[in-house]
Amino acid sequence: MERIETDVCVIGAGSGGLSVAAGAVQMGARVVLVEGGRMGGDCLNYGCVPSKALIAAAKQAHALRSGARFGIAPAEPEIDYAAVKDHVRHAIDTIAPVDSQERFEGLGVGVLREWGHFISETELQAGDHVIRARRFVIATGSSPLVPPIEGLDGVPYYTNETIFDLREKPEHLIIIGGGNIGIEMAQAHARLGSRVTVIEGAEVLSRDDADAREIVLARVRAEGVEIVEGQQAERISGQPGEITVETGQGRHTGSHLLVAVGRSVNVAQLDLDKAGVSHGRAVEVDDRLRTSNRRIYAVGDAAGRMQFTHVAGYHGGVVIRSLLFGLPARAKQSHIPWTTYTDPELAQVGPTEAQARERWGDAVEVVRANYDESDRAIAEGRPEGFVKVMVVKGKPVGATIVGAQAGELIGMWALAISAGLKMSAISTAVLPYPTLMELNKRAAGAYFSPRLFDNAWVKRIVGAVQRFVP
Ligand SMILES: Cc1cc2nc3c(=O)[nH]c(=O)nc-3n(C[C@H](O)[C@H](O)[C@H](O)COP(=O)(O)OP(=O)(O)OC[C@H]3O[C@@H](n4cnc5c(N)ncnc54)[C@H](O)[C@@H]3O)c2cc1C
Ligand SMILES: NC(=O)c1ccc[n+]([C@@H]2O[C@H](COP(=O)([O-])OP(=O)(O)OC[C@H]3O[C@@H](n4cnc5c(N)ncnc54)[C@H](O)[C@@H]3O)[C@@H](O)[C@H]2O)c1
């Protein structure tokens, strides 16, 4: 058994763990990084990168079919599904060096390719190594939740860890779960030529704004995806190529099955009890991301909060400030955006309209700009969607955007909220014409218009000033 002494030991080389390791080593700490699976974690290998690459291919196919509004004859694309998967693999392989063992060793990080588990409050065992560290960071992420649905273990099924390796186009893909994964994958597969049925036990994209969801759902349905809401998958039967999912209200048979019903945090393997770390389904952390053992932090999906790559990265920054500089840095949630990469995209930062009204009552004002008011959206034939901003005392507290490039547009509101900017900062910004970004400015303008144009005082002052202006 080889013993290693270090300042920081990071468990998990996904988005969260890599951010901590890279930051800490470059600021002079001795860092050991322990990774049992693939460097890069979920996002690179089974999550964001392959899903966005597949979505990009699907978008290309959709563009060929939908040229009519530009006067371009629509054509049914010939799709080589295996070649689409080559594109997905190429995207992963191109990004992989950034997250690689070689790059991190080059930065000075000691990388151990082993599964780790705690053996005491200050020690982790990883293969033949025992690592004693002044601080540990748990960044073990999450895995696809496999629900206890009767019959599931008797049929072949895919999760996000296997679907991107499938090289034959599914004739009819049944997806259980209408969350981000379910809906992104549903639209992408439909555009790539599969018949798709989504079975959702509650509401599709239930964390998002109701008006925005409707726009996304209408489009996804119009593209041929069958969406069944309010029906739990209860029983599964069949054989390869013919799988039946039964809900209380009906039966749905397809050729392939994708299970996307949420995530299960990777804690079981860690022996957290030996380290004195409290946990439920996720590692329990305080606002500073410290666990019940003050020497051990948790970041990213493992910390059981919002499960996004940029959140894992943000957590990494918070933890670095705390463990390297002893600063009381805290992780907030109010300024964190997220985007569902359907077409149209759906992006959110802060509370939705319903959540804001519940929290602030009449003190919240909701302003809106519609895509059909944007010259750019009209020119590009993309007039569907809106920007909606929730404002309290002149400051934005939340924003919802549904429409083309919503994930890019939300950045302005994420910045405004995190920097505590007022609506006037957005309304007075000069933005290039014609861009979709101007919709943000238009929404901010909608906040000031009634104050300026329907205001008797403003009219009186202008009248008075005009009398004296030569
Ligand atoms: C299909 C899909 C699409 C997604 N799309 C997006 C998106 O578009 N945008 C977005 O922001 N987020 C997206 N996400 C979410 C995003 O992937 C996760 O939030 C992010 O990867 C979390 O990073 P992490 O570092 O916490 O964990 P992970 O990336 O899961 O990394 C954890 C690492 O720890 C390792 N590990 C686990 N246990 C141990 C152990 N005991 N010892 C050693 N190593 C261990 C694992 O092997 C893994 O490599 C998507 C997720 C999925 C599944
Ligand atoms: N664009 C992005 O940023 C992106 C994309 C994909 C995933 N992610 C992250 O990964 C997480 C996991 O995604 P997900 O889609 O697996 O989970 P999710 O929690 O978002 O959605 C799971 C859905 O499955 C439904 N469900 C559960 N059991 C069911 C059953 N038996 N029958 C029918 N429906 C059932 C739930 O009601 C829920 O709507 C997301 O919450 C998000 O944090 C992010």
UniProtKB/TrEMBL annotation:
Annotated S-S bridges: 43-48
Named cofactor requirement(s): FAD
SUPFAM superfamilies reported in the protein's UniProt record: FAD/NAD(P)-binding domain, FAD/NAD-linked reductases, dimerisation (C-terminal) domain
Gene3D superfamilies: 3.30.390.30, FAD/NAD(P)-binding domain
MF annotations from Gene Ontology: flavin adenine dinucleotide binding; NAD(P)H dehydrogenase (quinone) activity; oxidoreductase activity, acting on a sulfur group of donors, NAD(P) as acceptor
Keyword Disulfide bond: yes
Binding, NAD(+): 177-184, 200, 262
Record-annotated Pyridine nucleotide-disulphide oxidoreductase dimerisation domain positions: 336-442
The FAD/NAD(P)-binding domain, residue ranges: 7-316
Keyword annotations of the record: Disulfide bond, FAD, Flavoprotein, NAD, NADP, Nucleotide-binding, Oxidoreductase, Pyruvate, Redox-active center
CC cofactor note: Binds 1 FAD per subunit.
Pfam families found in the cross-reference section: Pyr_redox_2, Pyr_redox_dim
Database matches in InterPro entries: FAD/NAD-bd_sf, FAD/NAD-binding_dom, FAD/NAD-linked_Rdtase_dimer_sf, Pyr_nuc-diS_OxRdtase, Pyr_nucl-diS_OxRdtase_dimer, Pyr_OxRdtase_I_AS
Binding site for FAD: 52, 116, 140-142, 301
Family stated for the protein in its record: Belongs to the class-I pyridine nucleotide-disulfide oxidoreductase family.
Protein name, entry field: Pyruvate/2-oxoglutarate dehydrogenase complex, dihydrolipoamide dehydrogenase (E3) component
Organism of provenance: Tranquillimonas rosea
Higher taxonomy: Bacteria, Pseudomonadati, Pseudomonadota, Alphaproteobacteria, Rhodobacterales
